[in-house]
Amino acid sequence: MLAAAGLLSAAAVVGTATVGVAYQAWWDQPHDSATLHVSRDELDFLDSLADAIFPPSPLLPLRGRDANVGRYVDLVLDGMAPLQRKLLRASLHALDQYPRATLGRPFRELGPDESVAVLAAWVGSGLPELRGVVASVYIFVTMAYSIHPKIAPIFGAQFLCGYGE
Description:
Elements (H helix, E strand, L loop, with lengths): L1 H25 L13 H14 L15 H10 L3 H16 L2 H4 L8 H12 L4 H19 L5 H5 L9
Helix pairs in contact: 1-4, 2-4, 2-6, 2-7, 3-7
């Protein structure tokens, strides 16, 4: 029983530290010169996440980072109310910093195999809050990727509704 209490205490400390690091990394970070809202760290995280979701493949001629996912998310943020914009940006930073507790660096600095493994762990996590945040960001990344001119016709072939035309 004492070991379980120690494990829960350690998990609480690691979780609190991760939130603190994410908040410190995000707080008042200026947007990149080429964007309206998204910072350089956020662009790098979105590129890394897009690569983990859409790695180089013979089926898809464009790897994730080459689909301008960050620019798409920046335009989505521009249409959001300020509070929602801040919450989505905070979510990007929280996810980026999450691997720091176990791997010692943010998601955007992981190698391809590590980022795919971390993404798989997030998607299969027993924490519904983590899965929810991941799913929300995942949706924006996949939307951006699927509407890219090199990808839309490939995805459109799967749907008879006219998608991708």
